[in-house]
Amino acid sequence: MNQEVTNTTTPEAVSPLRERRFLVLLTYRICAILSYQIVAVTVGWHVYEITGNPFSLGLIGLAEVLPYFCIAPFAGYLVDHLSRRKLGAMACLGLTATALALFCFSKDWLPFKGIWPIYAAIALTGTVRAFLSPVYNALFAHILPREQFARGTGIGSVVFQIGLVTGPALGGLLVAWSGKSVAYGVAASFAFIALVVIGSLKNVVEPMASARRAPIFASIGEGLRFVFSNQIMLAAISLDMFSVLLGGVVAMLPAFVSDILHYGPEGLGILRAAPALGSILAGLWLARHPLQQNAGRVLLIAVAIFGFCSIAFGLSRYFWLSAVILLIYGVCDGVSVVIRSTIMQLVTPDEMRGRVSSINGIFIGSSNELGAFYAGSMARLLGLVSAIIFGGIMTLCVVGITARKAPHLRRLNLRDLQ
After folding, report:
1. Fewer CB within a 10 Å sphere, N or C end of the chain?
2. What percent of the chain has pLDDT over 90?
3. How do the residues of the chain divide into helix, strand and coil, expressed in percent and rounded to 5?
């Protein structure tokens, strides 16, 4: 007797990697990340070679961050109202132009002298970077079904972290072995590949033509009101922002490695890599075992452990113990990033994905930059070790306040949002 065989595979059990368009989107993301990370490392070496002044290195970050913050709200608006593929391609074209301009400058093929042309090129990088994440997030939501958002976010987080780890390492190796010009040329090649890849993406939903009539400032305000009126999203973003702002230890690693652990640059490299490795491991696990139940509780626990890791790191006097602590620290940060990103994808209406992604980028970007400034200020006020421990304690306070003030986040199950 013949029996009918039925396919009982649920949508969430299917790997997002079987979707060709998702692979194309991931290629776009990692190539763009590698491009601007290689440029960032090479420019730092280039500028210091010219000036010999550490303050000039700080101006590189300022030259990139200021345009990013100014452009990000408008980038989100454009992503919600224009072709995402074309905006992504234009952003990649900007990255390509930046790297090529720096390549020509390093060869003395341009009439400009000094370091200000380099800062101008980095400002262009900051401008076009404001489009990269909103484009990725908007296309992500139209390529994958909602049931695969959790798995897809985990995979995307792994790709992002791999880019952040590999890009600076590759840039440093290229500068050491082949020189600045080759490094800039490789960065331009990665950006051009990203441009070609995003341009080849087919069968994606683009904004309706009627949406283009929305007033720009009213539309940006609508995105802000949505984020601030949604308790789950606002609590998740704020928790991530304040935990990194108050409990981040990465900015203090050079001083801690030198003054407390008494290691050299090789020790700094290992400790800088440990949190990234932890984040990659967390992303791989969550891509394989996506969270559905008790996601809010897991998020709060992960950030609490993140705070405890900051305290433990401040108390540690053994190098390899510090490395293990930072590995766990990175795992907790990776869990937080994946859950927050999944919440953002599930909660955000399709017509607001660009604006909400830009607002999220401003929150998280400001926490990294301001966190470094905060950590340095507190270290000067309290001392290095006391500042790190105090930051961990403040992170635990933030977790307690969030758990009390945001009961919807505390009781969140991601399955309820699908």
Report:
1. N
2. 21
3. 85, 0, 15
